[in-house]
Design goal:
Layout lengths: L9 H19 L6 H8 L3 H8 L2 H16 L8 H16 L2 H9 L7 H27 L9 H19 L7 H13 L3
Length: 191
């Protein structure tokens, strides 16, 4: 454990706290993370965490969103097929890491804590909204039918990976990104 240091502020504080939060999520599971433990690991006072994030669920949400944004960036290859395959490839790669497994499994556990459930829903709403941009760009370029539902498309693709991780276990099929995108594009490209 690191002694709290009142000198850590701003971006350094955020990085130290988010890194400690993610390390705890990965090592003990999202349901076992406590602000006191994160503060000790980050070398900051608990009050610094509460001042910035207000609640543990808000801290968990920020940590999860920051990790996913780095690990699974939203590609812009100029073609919807390329974007979807790159997105799926990054999602699959991340899902097969210790961090990815912990984060994906940790975001599906049912909570009785209303704040935690609210944070979980916000995480998925934000992540889906961001990934839907891939489909919107495809529609705008005329690669996809104007009637395509961006949310349903991304839920279909991402849901395959999440189902494998949370329910089926074992390695994900090597060709999952390509075959899943082929399957979805067959149903959403203009005829």
């Amino acid at each position: 454990m690191v002694e709290p240091s009142p000198q850590i502020r701003g971006a350094r504080l955020r990085k130290a706290v988010l890194d400690a939060t993610l390390a705890h999520i990965e090592s003990i599971g999202i349901g076992n993370v406590r602000v006191a433990d994160v503060a000790a690991a980050a070398g900051v006072h608990e009050t610094s965490i509460y001042r910035r994030w207000k609640t543990l669920p808000r801290l968990l949400l920020d940590a999860l969103l920051s990790r996913v944004a780095v690990e699974i960036p939203l590609p812009d290859t100029g073609a919807v097929r390329g974007d979807l395959e790159a997105f799926m490839t990054d999602l699959i790669r991340f899902a097969q890491t210790a961090s990815g497994l912990a984060l994906i499994r940790g975001t599906v556990i049912a909570e009785t804590d209303l704040d935690a459930e609210t944070a979980r829903r916000e995480f998925w709403a934000r992540r889906l909204a961001a990934s839907e941009e891939i489909v919107r760009r495809g529609i705008a370029r005329g690669e996809l039918a104007a009637t395509v539902d961006p949310r349903l498309t991304m839920l279909t693709l991402g849901g395959l990976v999440h189902l494998h991780v949370t329910q089926l276990g074992g390695p994900l099929p090597a060709d999952l990104a390509h075959t899943a995108v082929d399957l979805v594009l067959a149903g959403i490209t203009p005829r």
